């Protein structure tokens, strides 16, 4: 008898903003993952095909085997692409046009005990909320004595090769580099023992740059750094860039869809800054829509306006950004967490494409990376958080909206107030009883004042 435990997953499945997430062998067990496989199989119907992959998390093979078992038993065929980064599978799903869905077994940047399933639609983008609801319902209505197909109608299993080659080839196809200068660039690459290890040397060889890699052996326990790229987790990368006199450093998150850059002086730059560097180059010729979530700095707006292009702010979350890009026919989008979406390649977060775009800018402009950042308007950031009661979150956001009437605001996701040449984003945490007040300003003092003003608004709105 397989032990079932007491996870909420036994009762129901709930998609998070990042797909299905939970702790391996607590939430994601052989029982729940087989049931997820059968629920997806029931939703897709017999005869459908899916492709799946994993990162290097230790629980990957266990979860994958159970999912495959559930899918095949429902009459859905499965192709296993092995260890590949998230954007590579997304690109393959869209271009091969052979699959109803893709399943990426990863917990992105979460600690090693976590795992998850990102569910990808046939267009290569995460499935919309309606399809998530349908899968949740199929999971809830699942019965152990479900009407399974007879033995000759169970799904067919295949291994899928060629996903990485397809991905690298398409990045190169959409990269505009000056080949004469590529050999002068020396990149320090930190995949953080994540799934980027599976292809990054292949891409760097194609780009023609010199490179040195650190933390480059696959290890799903993430022994060297947490898999979220932050100023703290990329300290070894920063030091290595300076020691080697390299052109820049790049650090990836666990599943390779986000990339953060360190310049030639070892200085860490958030994703909206590297996005602004790419924009400053791209918008010399492209003048149409650019998309970014409200979590980005006003810096992005400054650069877009300076080039006469148009900026669309969206809610936070990669699926919202991807779908809005398609609606507006925007060529590019970017996030402060290191997500770059480049539509000529694909309209989803893509760490490998971000690397190629930056190499493109450096080889064509033939300059140091630090000068690209120095050419941008300078903003200082200040971030504060405050504890609130979980039940007060909605009341607070509604009162803050009332309190900022008359200011220039966006209320798509939390409240973003544009003030004193900068901005402050007041937003509840999705998972904890907290509010965050993130500000950017032309000086350190302005950023601090704006952030404190945001905290004061939250305190006022919390009163009974
Ligand atoms: Mg990720």
Write the layout of secondary structure elements.
Layout: E1 20-23, H1 30-44, E2 49-54, H2 60-73, E3 77-83, H3 86-96, E4 101-105, E5 114-121, H4 129-140, E6 157-159, H5 163-173, H6 179-182, E7 186-190, H7 200-207, E8 210-213, H8 235-244, E9 248-252, E10 259-262, E11 268-269, H9 271-282, E12 289-293, H10 298-306, E13 310-314, H11 318-328, E14 332-334, E15 340-342, E16 346-349, H12 351-365, H13 369-374, E17 380-387, H14 393-403, E18 408-410, E19 415-419, E20 422-428, E21 434-441, H15 444-462
Parallel strand pairs: 2-3, 2-4, 3-6, 7-8, 7-9, 12-13, 12-14
Antiparallel strand pairs: 1-5, 4-5, 9-10, 10-11, 14-15, 15-16, 17-21, 18-19, 19-20, 20-21
Helix pairs in contact: 1-2, 1-4, 3-5, 9-10, 14-15
The site of magnesium ion (MG) has 6 residues, from loops.
The residue fraction in helices comes out at: 25-40%
The CATH topology annotation of the largest domain reads as Alpha-D-Glucose-1,6-Bisphosphate, Chain A, domain 3
Poorly predicted tracts of residues: none
Quickly give the structural class: alpha/beta
Can you count the beta strands? Answer: 21
Overall number of domains: 3
Radius of gyration: 23 Å
- What is the typical, i.e. mean, pLDDT? 96
What ions, cofactors and ligands are bound? magnesium ion
The CATH class assignment of the largest domain is Alpha Beta
What is the first-to-last residue Cα distance?
Answer: 52 Å
